[in-house]
Design brief:
Order of helices and strands: EEEHEHHEHEHHEHEHEHHEHHHHHHH
Largest sheet: 8 strands, parallel, barrel
Distance between the termini: 40 Å
CATH architecture of the largest domain: Alpha-Beta Barrel
CATH class of the largest domain: Alpha Beta
Helix content: 40-55%
Number of helices: 17
CATH topology of the largest domain: TIM Barrel
Strand order of the largest sheet: 3-4-5-6-7-8-9-10
CATH superfamily of the largest domain: NADP-dependent oxidoreductase domain
Shape: globular
Number of strands: 10
Number of domains: 2
Radius of gyration: 20 Å
């Protein structure tokens, strides 16, 4: 296993993290516990969960699994979250997570699912941020973190404005890294830990190996290995957070980092360039299409269209709208077809046409 410094916390964490959001049988706790133990045997020390994951069973499963681990000198680092704005509600959520996990303190506790700067201001105004800092003073949280879907520029500003934040969890992978690269680099430079969630694009990369074959270098046996190594080789990324669903997923992650030699920075930059070239028909989320005169968040809608292009099912696409971006199809319908976005697009994508397709998606349809 490869281990990295988590920002300026002094903690060395595993570069592969266990994401407790994809237990295939959430009410079969033994199944989930076995997956977590398998990851632990691989050397994983970073275990992430949250309320509501997996029919609200994830925190219980992770807690049971951690309590049943055999004695070891290897540390265990826990991560959980609260999306509450109100400080009192945030505190109650934290206390519930502590009880479920069976720990006196949570290593990395996140102010969860911050969508945009206004959302962050609400967390501050509502008292959630202050509640997190107070809980840290009391020893209930070791490190205050933020889980966010904001853009790279917005993340960089958050890091600059709030030195109390010690780490970030962001959606970041070989497909969409341009969208948040600026923020990730800013966080790393400022001594923050950065956890990359959805490192395999929610399963799209392994589900479409031929589409993503260009990610591979000669030393990569498959696209999953390539996608994981792309992140682990990046000094700005602390942890690639993988949602394990099967023992095979655990084994695939192990192969990616054992043995492992980080790619040199020159190679990483060449790889980033080749990835952007490889997506000749899929949006890489660079954001050059902005600003839109109608205020349409074009990169977010193009991300949803990427999933449509790859044949994702209705539930997955709907989840992208509702849970990842907090958007509705009618917001894409505000397009006046002025063409400014297409004139700026470095990939020359038919953005207007794609916005129309996204606008026509029926969130209420029965799959």
């Amino acid at each position: 296993m490869v281990y990295k410094e988590y920002g300026s916390t002094g903690k060395q964490v595993s570069s592969i993290g266990f994401g407790g959001m994809r237990f295939p049988l959430p009410h079969d706790h033994d199944n989930g516990i076995a997956l977590l133990h398998a990851a632990r045997n691989m050397g994983v020390t970073y275990f992430d969960t949250a309320p509501f994951y997996c029919d609200d069973q994830s925190e219980d499963i992770v807690g049971e699994a951690l309590r049943s681990l055999p004695d070891s000198d290897m540390p265990v680092y826990t991560s959980s979250k609260s999306s509450e704005n109100d400080g009192n509600d945030f505190r109650r959520s934290l206390e519930k997570s502590l009880k479920r996990l069976g720990v006196p303190s949570i290593t990395f506790f996140h102010i969860w699912c911050v969508m945009n700067p206004e959302d962050w201001r609400n967390r501050v105004k509502g008292g959630a941020f202050a509640a997190a800092l107070k809980a840290k003073e009391e020893g209930l949280i070791e490190h205050v973190c933020v889980s966010t879907h904001m853009s790279g520029t917005q993340i960089a500003r958050l890091v600059e404005d709030h030195p109390e934040i010690e780490g970030l969890t962001v959606g970041y992978c070989a497909i969409n890294f341009p969208y948040r690269r600026k923020g990730v680099v800013a966080a790393h430079t400022a001594g923050r830990g950065v956890v990359a969630m959805n490192p395999l694009a929610g399963g799209l990369i392994p589900q479409h190996p031929d589409t993503f074959r260009f990610l591979q270098t000669p030393d990569d046996p498959d696209v999953v290995t390539a996608a994981i190594r792309f992140l682990v080789s990046d000094p700005a990324i602390t942890v690639a957070l993988i949602g394990f669903s099967t023992p095979g997923h655990v084994e695939a992650a192990r192969r990616a980092v054992e043995p492992f030699t980080a790619y040199p920075e020159a190679h990483m930059e060449e790889l980033r360039t080749s990835i952007q070239r490889g997506f000749d028909q899929m949006c890489t989320g660079c954001g050059y299409c902005l600003p839109c005169p109608q205020g349409i968040p074009i990169p977010q809608f193009m991300d949803i269209h990427n999933y449509m292009q790859l044949g994702a099912d209705h539930e997955e696409i709907a989840g992208r709208f509702k849970f990842h971006w907090d958007l509705t199809p009618d917001q894409a319908d505000r397009c006046i077809q002025c063409g400014l976005c297409e004139s700026r697009c470095t990939q020359h994508l038919p953005i207007i046409q794609r916005l129309q397709r996204v606008a026509g998606f029926d969130l209420t349809a029965t799959p």
